[in-house]
Amino acid sequence: MKSKSEIALKALEILGKISLNSLNLFLVVVTSPYGVSMNQMQRRLREIERTEEKITNEFENIQKFHSLLNRLKEDGLIKKVEQRRHGNWIITPKGKRALPLLKKRHEKQLPSKKYEAEKQNEIVIVIFDIPEEQKNKRHWLREQLRNMGFKLLQKSVWLGHVQLPEEFVHDLRLLDLTNFVRIFSVSKAGSIEKLI
Asked: Looking at the structure, do residues 62 and 80 belong to the same domain, yes or no?
């Protein structure tokens, strides 16, 4: 670790040549050896600028994570216990009681991802009949088919020149929809082709 005087000297030398924001100045001072040439420093700065966006994104993720921890703390689900110089997070009795309910709620959540579907020559037909008590899954399925480029033929019959992603089929299994959904592939079509 460099001494305070070494860091101060290096910072002044660098700032004597170019102006930098605090973060870039810190990174150049800490990661560059003493006596580095201006060309080497410029190269190092370009490297830093390329990674600056990654650092910013990571910092935003850390901030979001800390916000989440604070929310859990405010809800009384976790608490911080001090040990030596650092504190550790632990689950509270209230958190232990809430955990099974939160797991159940999470399991009922529908996947929110967008599937990357590839175009193909064959026509894929998706037919479904999902019970009314699972209408949220039915709405989810319609939205996913629409997002992948399928067209509605009639109420629960969708057509598309789309290869269904494996991840989508996997999620149909996870949601226990395989008994209610039928998928067909048609290589030669008659009048149906005009509808697409």
From this structure: no
- Do 87 and 138 lie in a common domain? no
pTM score above 0.70: no
Cα–Cα distance between 93 and 72 in angstroms, integer? 13
**Contact in structure between 179 and 129 (CB atoms under 8 Å):** no
Residues 89, 130, single domain; the answer is: no
Tokens of 163: 């290869």
Taking phi over 0 as left and psi of -120 to 50 as alpha, with beta for the rest, 34 belongs to beta
Block residue for tokens 């030398």:
13
145 and 92 both lie in a single domain? no
| Tens-place pLDDT, residues 50-98 | 776 676 767 777 787 778 788 888 988 888 777 666 667 788 888 888 8
Range of the domain at 60: 4-67
Give the DSSP per-residue string, 84-113: TTEEEEEE-HHHHHHHHHHHHHHHHPPP-P
**Closest alpha carbon to 128 in 181, 184, 183, 185:** 181
